[in-house]
Amino acid sequence: MINRVVLVGRITKDPVLRKTTSGISVVAFTLAVNRRIKKEGQPDADFINCQAWQGVADVLHKYTKKGSLIGVEGRIQTRSYDDRSGKRVYVTEVVVDSVQFLEPKDSASANANVSTNTYVPQNSYEPTYEPGAGTTPSYSNDFASSDTLDIASDDLPF
């Protein structure tokens, strides 16, 4: 059985760090995930309840805020409890195992008024070779030699 979830979205409000009675960190938050296909009368995003524990909770609390674009990986979990009136309540949420920050630290507030979720890396690769400048790029091709590889059949993965 496989129970893996990968989501990319924006945090809907500042994460609040709580501690259990035994001192374990926990953060509950909601992730707004845009839908790829929009239908008339349907919302543009799904709001997914998430929960992170221990180190992941500490990192989320310290480095994210409302509007932060993050990627999370985890598993779906359903739990139940009895509310104050004695009625059984079921909750389905994503228990987060890992998180990735998908934008620079200070751009979440700068992009709050922008409707696009495009992330442009600050350090983009630009080639140094310019045609007509009199230099040609040198590439080393390690596979150009006619030597054969000596690999035992036990070393092959298939």
Automatic annotation (TrEMBL):
Pfam families for the chain: SSB
Q: Which organism is it from?
A: Amedibacillus dolichus DSM 3991
Q: Which InterPro entries does the record match to this protein?
A: NA-bd_OB-fold (IPR012340), Primosome_PriB/ssb (IPR000424), ssDNA-bd (IPR011344)
Q: Where is this region: Disordered?
A: 112-146
BP GO terms, sorted: DNA replication
How it assembles, according to the record, is: Homotetramer.
Q: Which CDD domains match?
A: SSB_OBF
Indicate, by first and last residue, each region the UniProt record lists as having compositional bias (Polar residues): 112-126, 135-146
Provide any one GO MF term from the record: single-stranded DNA binding
Q: Which UniProt keywords apply?
A: DNA-binding
Designated name of the protein: Single-stranded DNA-binding protein
